[in-house]
Amino acid sequence: MSKSKESMEIDNFKSTADLTSNPGFQSSLSIASKNVDEKPYNPFEHRTVEHPNSTIGSIVHLLKCCLGSGILAMPAAFKNSGLIAGTIGTLIAGFVCTHTVHILVRTSQEVCVDAKKPSLSFAETCGAAFTYGPKRLQKWGNFIKELVDYSMCITYFSVLCVYVVFIGSSMKEILDVYMPDNPLSIQAACALTLVPLVLICQIRNLKYLVPFSALANLLILVVFVITIYYVFLDLPSPKEREMVASITQWPLFLSTVIFAMEGIGVVMPVENEMAKPQQFLGCPGVLNVAMVIVISLYGFVGFFGYLQYGDNVKGSITLNLPEDDITAQVAKGLMAFVIFLSFGLQFYVPMEMITRKRKGKESKYENLVQVVIRTVMVTISVAIAAAFPNLELVISFVGAVFFSTLGLLIPAVVDTVYRWENRLGRFNYILWKNTLIGIISIIALFSGAYVSVQGMIEDFGGHSLENHELFENSTLT
Predict the structure, then answer these.
(1) Which one in 107, 210, 319, 384 has a CA-CA gap of 20 to 30 Å to 166?
(2) Taking every annotated instance into account, which residue ranges of this chain make up the domain Amino acid transporter transmembrane (predicted)?
């Protein structure tokens, strides 16, 4: 019996996979002493994705999450920087945003090896970086994970509300031209988006969203072509525009660009569901290819949009297009449809967290539960947008704060914490570099908050003045 027991223990010991999968086992023996070659854990070899994305599909997703309504605000961003400063600033901001995504994904892949897990989400990566970092900070791992998780959920849910307002406002502008006697209220316009948005949000796999992203990318190019057509009509000389704006306006430019470019919440889901995740980083790599395209388009639209409309440029350049021109109306309608197609991809971020939180609690009615959860979330976003049609001012405040924090500050902190013990590079250059990124994020945070609050105050004052004038007119009548 003792020989049989010893044989059983030896047979169990030979499986390194069983040992690594048991978190309670802490062996002090050397596997090499048993003449077993220890193979480093490769997370890519252990990933089992039911619906993996191709490399091209992953590029399409990254392009779609970055090329949204934010690119339409780039001419307004250039207004706060000038032509030369805006061009240089866009390149720098694009490089910083790309770099922070790079260090986040690289840290995630390295932490996967330590944790012996095939993949980690954004929040899980942040928590694991603390857990496997310095001993004094390990106890903060779970708190950081939960903090990032809920911050991501709130941020992207706020983006969904803004998307509803954008779609409703665009459709209202178009319909009001053709129904001047019966103008549609913004609340009704937002309500009309409910059923289509509920349907598109029932798609549960990123792979099935690729056709929608591809179509959205194609349509947004059509919108760009139409917009650029109007932009290049009687284009003024660059001498008529500021080359470098006042330095007091630069933070406004920075916060706008970061808010527009950051797609940090979609990065980890895209990387985790790639068929060949090792192609995400590197040169050319999925990340670099997508961001080169994004930065180029942002700089192009920002430069020539500001050159054409100058200080009169609005928050979305499509609002500068002629109201009674059919081609301009088509551009506005297509852009609303693009945002509609983008809704499903943005919706994936908060839904991914909810699905993960419910893991292990599935029931036999799981399909119905999923439908109900998704329907309720979309309904709430539409209801909030309809109740507060100027919600974009509030959401821009939340988005600017969270995107600058989630997209810049947190990746820099996570990278620093994870590499704190003897891995900060020569002369601790990683520490100094990440400190600079943190400073940039804080500037963007406060400047974004300032712009949003100032806009809300001005908007409130404008409505008060308008109501006062209406009261005076009614009294005179």
Answers:
(1) 210
(2) 53-453
The amino acid at 225 = V
- With a CB cutoff of 8 Å and minimum separation 6, the contacts of 72 are 301, 315, 316, 317, 318, 335
Confidence category of residue 215, pLDDT binned at 50, 70, 90: confident
Whether omega for the bond prior to residue 236 falls within 30 degrees of 0, making it cis, is: no
pLDDT tens digits for 247-290? 877 777 887 788 777 777 778 878 888 888 878 887 888 888 98
**Within a domain: 320:** yes
Q: How many domains does the chain have?
A: 1
| String of DSSP letters for 196-225 | HHHHHTT---HHHHHHHHHHHHHHHHHHHH
The dihedral through the CA atoms of 70, 75, 80, 86 has a sign that is positive
Q: What is the pTM of this model?
A: 0.75
Residue 135 is part of a domain; what is its CATH number? Answer: 1.20.1740
Residues 328 and 226: beta-carbon distance below 8 Å: yes
The answer to the question of residue 4 being in a domain is no
Q: Determine the structural domain holding residue 125 and report its residue range.
A: 23-360+367-459
In a domain, 10, yes or no: no
Place of tokens 């792979």: 207
